[in-house]
Amino acid sequence: MIILGIETSCDETALALIEKRLDQQGQPECRVLASLVHSQADLHSAYGGVYPSLAKREHGHNLVPLLHQLFLKASEAGWPETENKESIEKQVLADLAKNFQDTIDMNRSEVSPQNPELFETFAAAHFLKEKIWPIELIAVTEGPGLEPALWVGINFARLLSELWQCPVVPINHMEGHIVGSLWSDKIRATTWQKLAVPEWPAIALLISGGHTELVTVNSPGQYQIIGQTRDDAVGEAFDKAARLLGLPYPGGPHLSLWARQAEDLGLESPVKLPRPMIHSEDCDFSFSGLKTAVLYAVREAPLDTKGLMSEDFKKALALEFELAVTEVLASKLSRAIEVTGARTIILGGGVSANTRIRNRLVITAAKLGIPVFLPDHQITGDNALMIALAAAWYDHPTLSATELKAQGTKTLNEPRV
Ligand code: KG4
Ligand code: ZN
């Protein structure tokens, strides 16, 4: 089965094509035909964060050209492999030509007012009528995320599902991050491989720009959130601290680079930052106080003759910030394992690109004698491969085009309403 993944929850427009089959034991195995991510980070950088209406407009412009590129990439990898391609092609072409106009007519009044950019690019997409793409399932992120941005992906999934007459499954973005960590993206396209099968229950530490959660995974699709941030998410705290240090958005990777340089240079931190909630009995987090402590440190920083903080001061503060976050995460994760008896650790979300956090969790796991699954570097950030893989992981209920809705705040274990 060929699955198209669509991800537009934040500022990455992403599409992926995977093929799924079942092995003799009925276990799913997949291969990646193509996976593309178009980041809008540079555009949002000017605003110091993601600007939702700009993200929405950009997704609307990007999705159709990106789909075109995805097909080209997949063709280069030799897909689709069809023996009687020509006769199928003729039939599909005839069907598509008709469906295309029907789909356009049907969606003109509904999609066009909400997503004018998407509708215009879709209506101009002649290539959709010219090729044969035997896609059997569409997997689209329904939430959590920025609602206007999510809607663009949802509307695109609806248009395609009507055009291709194929079902759609809504996928939770955080589930995508969990599954992404069970996939080895080192083995490149067209090689069949299985998602790792951890020993359950697993504890997933999900750290991104919008979320910080500890989730018990009892089996695929069975989740229980046992801890979460009470204010800022880890990635948000990284981005805000980085901004206070004068770094561009998204600041996490820049701050992390400074932290490494500070360590290499042996710089001492000018202040000791707090480790918020590290001793609390629960599995919750709080990062806004840490950001405020960085603000005070910056305000009280010694300035040079030009009125500027020294580079060394900023780098040392970056290191202290990263150490504080890492210690809190490792400590809360250990507590969560104690409480739940989890037998595996899964790390996911954009912040899992951070080397210090990755290394620390590997040490934590080794001390406890349990395995840890980390996402490959190519898929730590938002991508559609993880969304397509989530659909392949177990059978999700499919929805009709009209039932699909963006669910901006939907948590992992919340039932559909
Ligand atoms: O999962 P993600 O790509 O998007 C959301 O769903 O939020 O996460 C993005 C977040 C941003 O806050 C970014 O600064 C952070 O991940 N991030 C990092 C690193 N790379 C990305 N934070 C710290 N260290 C990094 N190396
Ligand atoms: Zn994410």
Q: How would you summarize this macromolecular structure in one to three sentences?
A:
The protein is of the alpha/beta class and 417 residues long. The chain is 45% helix and 17% strand.
Q: Tell me, what's the shape?
A: globular
The tally of structural domains comes to: 2
- So what's the CATH class of the largest domain? Alpha Beta
Number of strands: 11
Q: List the uncertain runs.
A: none
Rg measurement, Å: 23 Å
Helix content: 40-55%
Whole-number average pLDDT?
A: 91
Describe the structure in your own words.
By secondary structure, this protein is an alpha/beta fold. The protein has helices at residues 41-45, 52-76, 85-108, 111-114, 116-123, 127-130, 147-164, 173-180, 234-244, 251-265, 288-299, 311-340, 355-368, 385-393, and strands at residues 2-7, 12-22, 28-39, 137-143, 168-172, 193-194, 202-207, 212-219, 222-228, 344-348, 372-373. It folds into 2 domains: 2-194 and 381-403, 2-Layer Sandwich (Nucleotidyltransferase, domain 5), CATH 3.30.420; 202-370, ATPase, nucleotide binding domain (Nucleotidyltransferase, domain 5, 2-Layer Sandwich), CATH 3.30.420. The strands form 2 sheets. It has a 6-stranded mixed beta sheet, with helices on both faces. It has a 5-stranded mixed beta sheet with strand order 9-8-7-10-11, with helices on both faces. α2 packs parallel to α5 and α11 packs antiparallel against α12 (311-340). It is globular and about 70 Å long. It binds 5'-O-[(R)-(carboxyoxy)(hydroxy)phosphoryl]adenosine (KG4) and zinc ion (ZN). The site of zinc ion (ZN) has 6 residues, from α8.
